Write a sequence for this structure.
């Protein structure tokens, strides 16, 4: 009898797992409580996989040998509770994919901020070095589907805390933890510690042969590091102190040391600007050295990397006013990094679905750099409460177009309009990409 694999959620990770499961001889059933995108319907049908949409048929789910739960489904979901109560093992997509990776190697990247940039740069370094590699995980392409349809020797995987929650054996050869700040607390019973524990799981199965790269300047990481028995080789990186192993920046010079390999590079040669990106570049460069990539190749990759859409993306300058799209800033810490890199008077577009945000960390930067706040969300009370004494101008808007017009109205030549919302986007937009695209469109129409 083939094992019954039930998959909750027919998005990228769910459909990828279904394809790999089918290929490996499982009896696969996919169930989605909402609508299923047409492209995913076509893929499921192409492989002859049974699926349902807009419902969960319990008798077809609770007879599973194993359940793959998509990262978007919370533990407090009633169906998940029933699955747990029956003792059916629940795994994540990266756990399932890991079983079938063969001899390939994995560089796994997680963190509250900077993980997408670090993952993309890490992939660019591997490609520049001529590695047979794929970019997978939270960044857009399913790890399981990649293994099923086009296996590679190397996988560079962006991994969210939700994906780490349901791992058992998943073990990256190189793990990168960029930093930890309060995010997604609504999913972790509003206990920061639960979220921290999820992030550290990236290193829990590592052995003495593996590497763990982390930020020595991040107070949360350093406070909790000792609490976990991590067996892999530690490689910290820092902007504040010189390190014999790992990475540091001193007087504008990056030094990266792994065992006997050492590389140096001037930060002015990085295509990624801003202090937070110096950390991301150190992390990815360390990753490159650990997997044996030559210094020259890493240097070329760091100098040729193009920044990402929706992450501090310059849109346009109109009548002396610069517009920047940082829609991917879905938590307060991301917005802090964005504001920290601002060198001109700023009109900040802020707001959306609040995930239990504490805005107080932004207060000093807002007083110092922000002329006006344009709120973009259905409920902006918390933002008004937080900053009513710090800026003179604050308005509510209900669309990207309204927000852009209001911001442009407040701006003078030489100012910057920054969309860096600090919140999720689901109240007015499909996702952060949609929010960023609508912002860019509205800027073009000014």
């Amino acid at each position: 009898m083939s094992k019954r694999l039930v998959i909750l959620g027919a998005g990228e990770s769910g459909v990828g797992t279904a394809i790999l499961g089918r290929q490996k001889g499982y009896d696969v059933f996919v169930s989605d409580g909402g609508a299923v995108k047409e492209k995913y319907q076509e893929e499921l049908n192409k492989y002859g996989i049974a699926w349902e949409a807009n419902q969960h048929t319990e008798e077809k789910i609770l007879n599973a040998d194993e359940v793959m739960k998509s990262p978007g489904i919370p533990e407090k979901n009633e169906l998940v509770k029933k699955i747990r109560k029956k003792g059916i093992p629940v795994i994540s997509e990266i756990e399932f994919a890991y079983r079938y990776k063969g001899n390939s190697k994995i560089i796994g990247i997680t963190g509250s901020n900077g993980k997408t940039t670090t993952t993309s740069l890490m992939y660019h370094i591997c490609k520049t070095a001529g590695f047979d590699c794929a970019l997978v995980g939270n960044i857009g392409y399913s790890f399981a589907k990649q293994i099923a349809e086009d296996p590679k020797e190397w996988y560079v995987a962006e991994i969210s805390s939700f994906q780490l929650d349901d791992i058992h054996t998943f073990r990256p050869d190189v793990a990168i933890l960029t930093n930890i700040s309060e995010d997604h607390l609504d999913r972790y019973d509003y206990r920061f510690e639960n979220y921290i524990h999820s992030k550290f799981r990236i290193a829990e199965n590592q052995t003495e042969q593996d590497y763990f790269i982390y930020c020595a300047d991040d107070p949360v990481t350093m406070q909790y590091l000792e609490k976990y028995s991590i067996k892999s080789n530690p490689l910290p990186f820092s902007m504040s102190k010189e390190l014999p192993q790992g990475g540091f920046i001193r007087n504008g010079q990056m030094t990266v040391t792994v065992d006997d390999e050492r590389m140096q590079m001037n930060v002015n040669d990085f295509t990624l600007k801003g202090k937070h990106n110096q950390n991301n570049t150190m992390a990815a460069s360390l990753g490159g050295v650990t997997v044996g990539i030559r210094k020259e190749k890493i240097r070329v990759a760091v100098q040729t990397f193009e920044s990402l859409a929706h992450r501090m993306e310059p849109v346009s300058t109109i009548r002396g006013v610069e517009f920047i799209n940082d829609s991917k800033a879905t938590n307060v810490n991301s917005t802090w990094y964005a504001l920290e890199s601002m060198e001109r008077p700023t009109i900040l577009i802020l707001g959306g679905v609040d995930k239990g945000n504490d805005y107080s960390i932004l207060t000093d930067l807002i007083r110092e750099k922000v002329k006006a706040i344009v709120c973009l969300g259905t409920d902006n009370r918390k933002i008004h409460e937080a900053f009513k004494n710090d800026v003179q101008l604050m308005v509510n808007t209900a669309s990207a177009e309204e927000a852009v017009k209001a911001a442009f109205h407040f701006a003078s030549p030489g100012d910057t309009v920054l969309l860096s919302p600090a919140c999720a986007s689901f109240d007015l937009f499909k996702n952060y990409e949609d929010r960023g695209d609508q912002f860019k469109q509205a800027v073009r129409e000014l």
Q: What stands out?
A: The CA atoms of residues 72 and 334 lie 21 Å apart.
